[in-house]
Write a structure and sequence with these properties.
Eukaryotic translation initiation factor 3 subunit C; 5 domains; initiation factor; 3-stranded antiparallel sheet; single chain; RNA binding; cytoplasm; mainly alpha
Length: about 850
């Protein structure tokens, strides 16, 4: 019932439900005992107002129950609600009701008492827990517009003194207690700094803080702090933007504390830090501001697919500005990853023996993040659009910054300690990743541009100073990789070795790359490495095969490329795409992909492999013919299947793609028409991707002449008793000496039963040595009958068929022949399996 309609209610109605309402009023009093005193005073004023109204209406009825508006008052305040006897009876069991502020002070005293007893026992874990609780209670007090209690100031001052005493015996503490002690020390220093005025007042006059001052519930007026009270905080505007008169470091601290919180405008924070950098008066202030600004730049793009190009360029400018300050003050300040953390950023670090102040930070991490953002943008941008080319032009910026980071790392790390310098190893790894896949001329241009932009530094690299000599590029990767070879971390050594091999193979130094590959033994352990190293291994292996093809080593190229080329996951193995659908790829899978300009052309890879297979397999098909051992001696089953599929086609039109050109060339070579095969292969435009395409075409023509001669002899030897060398020389346009050498090699390997007649200058074939078709079929039938008979005998004797030898996976494995490369990259076969394979074959 509303209080405005209580006047029309009878006394009987009030008395009937008085006990229930008064009991509920007492429960509400206990639940609301933590309300503020201002609200209680308001209630008392209302009570007095209601009491005056009762006196006006009925001044003589003091003994009756509360009526009218007094119906809603508490029992203890209702006029005439109880007699003197009842109040005297209830006085003994009456509960003491405390206000919210009194309860808050009791909780603060309890936490302080626990801290005092725990710090005496050096139980800093409990001290840390109680100190955090104490700070939370202080926040509650500040939310109620209360001043900082004196007992809190006294507690943090005494706790600071105890920390100074315990600091001397810190080594006696165990690991967990020592960690808690360090945390307490940092938080107490912050609390003392925030309440520096009150702490100084306590140290000057401790007796004034023994008695708790009356707690004021009335907030002070805006802009007028209470006399003698300082909260130790700087007033800041939106997103940490400093207000007029705020100091540099307090504004910087407020920005640092707001990082990572929700509803914080990162752009406003960046503007604030940019303003602080302009206001910086000392190098130390500029360094600290840049160390905070650069991470904020990267935080703005954490939720995006890649960092905005404008922000990326601003971050690159900030990093170079930081390097400029460090280089100008290299005898005073250095940013190191192993420096001690600063408890107070306002106080500069203590100089070391050389007079250098070491600041905790990592400029190399900034450069790595900048490089990662550059790579992310290249992964997302369409590689066939002009934006990709425009973005790729910025690679020179990051490359120059990496060299600058290397020079700074050489400044802080002596040459004698380079083997243990993880910082310089990370920088050199990034530098190698930008040059190992490029030709020498392009590397020379990048180096020249980078060192010209860094000429103002006046510092030379002790690893390899820049030079305009032609030999500089050849020794550049050797010098950089030699630093990584000295590192204790095996990941650096493996990555340097594979990049080194790739560089040699890309620049047509096949034998040097092959020897380094075999010496490293990476093929036996690469399956235990992470995915990025396995991708680099596969790329180096493919580039080695392409290099062998360019040098005319067809057999080596075929062996090296076979495993990856015949795999259905060659895109994924080379880090150039994924075989799964896009929605099934994880973030890690997408980040593992390489930028488009670093890709190896898969069509070129297929062309090289199929051409190598053609030059190897077609003569072998002609030699074996319909022999029963033909399928057993195949080296490229994929090429055989492609050729059989091409032969099964009812209508064979003109070639349309690279595979069709190679299949038509294979059929022409089988018929002994090497000229048609040469025209078909040389008409493939993919060869233009090689630096010296004319040389490659002439190489293919020469190989087709030689293998065409062998194919012709194998195919038509049964129709000749004697074949003139001069005629063969004319057909295949080869010198007679070359023809004689090829025929002699075939006779020596017992590929043909013939002899050279120097008198008639011809090759004479021996008849009756080779088996006829009928004899081959008879032998095949006899072998199968023998196997069937042996199987029946074992089944009759109750024995189960047992597999002989060792069972192992040979999918895609390369032969471990001398001079060839074992391909343990994809199937994880180690030396033990290789040894078992050799034993089984023997």
């Amino acid at each position: 019932m509303s209080r405005f309609f209580a006047g029309g209610v009878s006394d009987s109605d009030y008395s009937s439900s008085e006990e229930e309402l008064l009991s509920s009023s007492e429960e509400e009093e206990e639940l609301n005992s933590s309300s503020e005193e201002g609200e209680e005073e308001a209630e008392e004023s209302d009570d007095s107002e209601f009491a005056n109204n009762d006196d006006d209406s009925d001044s003589d009825s003091d003994d009756g129950a509360a009526t009218g508006p007094a119906y809603f008052l508490k029992k203890s305040f209702a006029k005439g609600a109880a007699s003197d006897d009842e109040s005297s009876d209830e006085e003994d069991g009456k509960k003491i009701v405390k206000s919210a502020k009194d309860k808050l002070l009791d909780e603060i005293r309890s936490a302080i008492n626990t801290i005092d007893s725990s710090k005496t026992n050096n139980d800093w874990i409990v001290v840390l827990s109680e100190f955090d609780k104490l700070n939370r209670l202080l926040v509650r007090a500040q939310q109620q517009n209360l001043s900082t209690p004196n007992i809190y100031i006294k507690a943090i001052a005494q706790l600071d003194d105890s920390i100074q005493e315990t600091q001397q015996d810190k080594k006696k503490l165990n690991a967990s207690v020592s960690k808690a002690f360090n945390t307490v020390r940092q938080r107490v220093k912050k609390a003392v700094r925030d309440n520096s005025t009150l702490v100084e007042s306590f140290r000057e006059n401790p007796e004034a803080f023994e008695k708790e001052a009356p707690i004021s519930a009335t907030p002070s007026k805006a802009g007028t702090p209470a006399p003698g009270v300082s909260d130790g905080f700087t007033s800041v505007g939106k997103a940490g933007k400093s207000i007029e008169g705020a100091s540099f470091f307090k504004t910087l601290r407020s920005v640092a504390e707001s990082r990572g919180r929700k509803n914080v405008d990162v752009r406003e924070q960046i503007k604030t830090l940019e303003g602080l950098i302009e206001e910086a008066q000392t190098p130390y202030q500029s360094i600290i501001a840049y160390l905070m600004l650069i991470p904020y730049r990267f935080d703005g793009s954490s939720t995006l697919s890649y960092m905005a190009i404008e922000q990326w360029k601003l971050a690159a400018q900030d990093i170079n500005s930081l390097f400029k300050i460090l280089e100008a003050n290299k005898s005073q300040y250095r940013v190191l990853e192993n420096a001690e953390a600063l408890d107070d950023i306002e106080v500069e670090p203590t100089p070391n023996a050389q007079g250098i102040r070491e600041i905790l930070g990592s400029v190399v991490s900034f450069v790595e993040r900048l490089d990662d953002e550059f790579t992310r943008s290249l992964q997302v941008i369409d590689p066939h659009a002009t934006e990709y080319i425009d973005r790729l032009k910025d690679e020179q910026i990051i490359y120059s910054t990496i060299i600058r980071a290397q020079l700074y790392s050489e400044l802080v790390i002596p040459e004698k300690d380079i083997a243990n310098g993880d910082q310089i190893a990370r920088v050199i790894t990034r530098r190698i990743e930008h040059i190992y896949f490029k030709p020498s001329a392009l590397i020379q241009q990048s180096e020249r541009t980078a060192w010209e932009s860094l000429s103002s530094i006046g510092q030379k690299s002790y690893i390899l100073p820049f030079s305009e000599d032609e030999s500089y590029i050849d020794t550049l990767l050797d010098s950089l990789a030699s630093v990584l070879y000295k590192q204790t971390n095996a990941v650096y050594r493996k990555r340097a070795m594979l990049s080194h091999i790739y560089y040699y193979a890309f620049n047509n130094q096949y034998f040097k790359a092959r020897d380094m590959f075999l010496i490293s033994h990476l093929q036996s352990s690469i399956h235990t490495s992470d995915a990025s190293l396995q991708i680099l291994f596969n790329r180096a292996l493919v580039q080695l095969g392409l290099c062998a093809f360019r040098n005319g080593l067809i057999q080596e190229a075929h062996q090296t490329l076979q495993e990856i080329s015949t795999s259905s996951r060659h895109k994924e193995l080379l880090g150039q795409g994924a075989q799964r659908f896009n929605n099934q790829n994880s973030v890690a899978d997408k980040q593992r992909l390489l930028p488009f300009h670093t890709h190896i052309n898969l069509e070129l890879l297929e062309s090289v492999f199929l051409t190598s297979s053609l030059l190897i397999e077609i003569p072998q098909y002609a030699q074996l013919g319909s022999s029963i051992d033909a399928k057993k001696r195949l080296q490229s089953k994929s090429f055989r299947r492609a050729l059989e599929f091409h032969e099964r086609q009812t209508f064979q039109g003109p070639p349309e793609n690279t595979r069709d050109f190679i299949m038509h060339a294979a059929k022409a070579l089988q018929a002994g028409n090497w000229q048609k095969a040469s025209d078909l292969l040389n008409s493939i435009k993919i060869w233009n991707l090689f630096p010296e395409s004319d040389k490659i075409r002439s190489l293919i023509k020469e190989k087709l002449q030689e293998e065409g001669l062998r194919t012709y002899v194998f195919q038509f030897k049964s129709f000749y008793s004697k074949l003139s060398i001069a005629k063969l020389s004319k057909i295949f346009e080869l010198p007679e000496s070359k023809v004689s050498a090829i025929l002699s090699k075939m006779i020596f390997k017992e590929e043909i039963a013939a002899g050279l007649d120097q008198v008639s200058n011809s090759v004479v074939f021996t008849k009756g040595v080779e088996l006829t078709k009928l004899q081959e079929l008879a032998l095949n039938l006899a072998d199968r009958a023998t196997l069937l008979s042996e199987r029946n005998e074992r089944l009759a004797g109750g024995h189960s068929q047992q597999q002989q030898g060792f069972s192992y996976s040979v999918t895609g494995a390369l032969a471990s022949a001398p001079g060839s490369i074992s391909g343990g990259a994809l199937n994880g076969m180690d030396k033990r399996n290789n040894q078992r394979r050799k034993t089984t074959r023997a």
